[in-house]
Amino acid sequence: MQSIQQWLPFLIPIIVLQLALMIFALIDLARRERTRGPKWLWVVIIVLGELIGPILYFVIGQEEE
Length: 65
Description:
single chain
């Protein structure tokens, strides 16, 4: 139990960043008409890709309008 408490101050900001990126990416995906690839696949990548999924979406998933 002690080891979890000592890592908690480091884990909380990472978890908050991960959730914020995921929510922002999903909102952006919902508002966009076109993406590179099917939207359902990007939802899976964003949600299951943890921290990397949303970053991949912002780097390669968005299609210029």
